[in-house]
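To whoever is on call:

I kicked off a structure prediction for a single chain this morning and the downstream step that reads the tokens threw a length-mismatch warning. I double-checked the sequence; it's 331 residues and nothing unusual in it as far as I can see. Pasting both halves so you can look.
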Amino acid sequence: METLLLNPDDVDENADMAEVIVAVEEAFAAYEAGRVRMPAKSYIDLPEYDGDFRSMPAYMHAGEWDAAGIKWVNSHTNNADAHDLPTVMGTMIYSDPRTAFPLAVMDGTTLTRKRTGAAAAVATDHLAVPGASSLGIVGAGVQSYTQLEAIATVRDVETVIVADKREAAVGAFVERFGDDFNVRAGSTAEAASCDVLSTVTPVESPIIDAADLGEHTHINAMGADAPGKNELAADVVTSAKLVIDDYEQCTHSGEINVPWSDGTLSDDDLHAELGEIVAGERSGRTSEDGVTVFDSTGLAIQDVAAARVVYERANAEGEGTAFGLVDTEVR
């Protein structure tokens, strides 16, 4: 047997977004049903290099299939300036849970963007108004592209307003999607007034106020990834219907971590984990709901689910590079 090596282009081509969304939704359902083994994300802090490593292993059984894998990912804030490298890089090892054979080693950075977009789409499908047609995106980095790609899969998006201090980033986004959507640059407040809003920024203090939002805006809060960081003002989270992906991660380092740590929010303010809604145990959007918020920290099961889609398609199409990573001779 050989292991399939999949580079960024391979992952991009084989991560069909509609399939990834289904797989990620199945992962949330499996999580709620207790068919997942997912240790907490572990960190190796490297302050001497202004960075860290994170390991994210998981096994999941979803319906007729099961899968396992681990993502090794970093965040080195000086990489771009000092080393001409991305701040975040990831590598995914996708394994056969029956034998532990490494079926694939693939680019985890592209995979992360795809599954993060898919998670936002799953939340949007359950929490946004059915007729949502406008999407606001605050932060025009690489993650913004898969936010639009994924959310447009579950809603008929017509108008997109993108906000970012970097004019070049906004220009690149508009150029990329201008032929398919009514895309324009706008202010943060204009983006926040849309039917759906995705915040994908590295900011450490709130940039979205309740007064900026539409009456029934659904927010995918994707940017907060460390204690002390949040994108939404307290008046947003205290008045919205709050849905999280994972209790431990969100209260520690997700969008709600700041208002949680200062006592502004408590268990009583949380409506559900997304898996509970997917499984039908808690309600998604109802006719009485106003603003809804999905706090996404990213789960290892999302990586495994997306990796399965990529591997199965690439393997079936004969794509990628097969190589002998493991000596399979039995001695």
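Update from on-call: the warning came from a stale cache, not from the record. Cleared it. Sanity check on the structure: The longest helix spans residues 108-127.
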